[in-house]
Design a protein that fits this description.
By secondary structure, the chain is α+β, with helices and mostly antiparallel strands. The protein contains 11 helices and 19 strands. β15 and β16 form a beta hairpin. It is elongated and about 120 Å long.
Amino acid sequence: MSLASTAAQLWAKADRSAVRAFFVSIGALTIALLLALYSGSASETGNMGAAIASAVGALLVAAWVAITLVPVLAKRTPLRWMGYRMEFRVSREGWIYILGIFFVAVAALNTGNNLLFLILASLIAIILMSGVLSSITLSGIEMRLHLPEHIFAGQPVRAKVEIQNEKLTLPSFSLRVEAVRGKNVVISPMLETPVYFPYIPKHDRVEQVVPMTFPKRGVYRQEAFRIITRFPFGFLQKARRLDLKSEALVYPSVEPSQEFFEILPGMQGALESLTKGAGQDLYALRDYLPRDSSRHVHWKASARLGSLMVREFTREDDCRVILILDPHMPVGLLPKDADARFEKAVTMCAALAWHFHERNAILQFRTAGFETPLVEAEEIVFDILKHLATAKAQPPDPKHTLLSDLASAADIFRVIVTSESRGSIPSSIWNQSWVIFLEDLP
């Protein structure tokens, strides 16, 4: 059944006219071969007329095949696998093997022993066969890298590396996938460690889950990957480069830091003093989801039901917050210190946005050149994180335009993250704002 299914797949994907031309050419060349053999036997018996006629006939048939059928076959033959650019190098075992071939060759030449010449030919044939088999193993192989939709800095994620064998008749063995490191790339490649695939069946795909960790926020790009094999004997290592451009947008970390826990009580108190209620009324119990906080787990209900249950609270309709990131760095700050302070500001804003998202607040985010509408936090939290992933510090703003505009904003509680000093904030903002000064954070 396997042979029949393979033949059916081959016939379904075959070019019928090319197959017909192939078999016609095989038949014509067989006739030419028979005519050539008859020409030789006729010349041996002295029948020169028949020998010449059969020889001319064989040449005419071969010429007809070369002129009419060979171009048709060449035009329809897919040569993309033959066009792969292979990189190869001889392994340490291969050099030892070649050294052994050299000694056998010297011994065969000195002694003239036919057995040594046979052994030498076999050893050289093994090297040639190793190169051919490794090229066949690498041919017809395609790769895909599947990354999660949302990636946070410093948080391990599970990516998938998929290898597809497009060959219809032959499997591939012992493939290793690794990232190609650029010459002038500062950021480390996506695949820190190679991924090994021992066996890929014919016309099938195999995937492996790979843990990845991106240390910093930003855009990570991988231009190419390399597929390497040492199959079958390990004498040669062949590699094929795949120009597979992959890109990952890494959000800043939303894990609460020590500084976040230090400012949270004061900010919560200021917020609750301007809103009605603290939102602690129990609404319902539901099953635990991976994104839920452990502090919302109802342990008694979980023990009674045998599965984790989470408390849902009533929505705080009056919990409306504007989160502001001031990207302008103060005058006189060294570039290195400015970058470190801005990274701290971005991380703080990401943690605050995620906190209000978990609290089901009505949220708006504002910064220089970017603003979201005032809607439910779950609708815009990833838009905020996407902007924070690529946000950059800006030069000093002597007029404090962004902060001055907040004085005329709606009557909503504001959380401001700024690198400015305390004396630079307009007094009209203080009444309904909680200002986080980065210079006060350790």
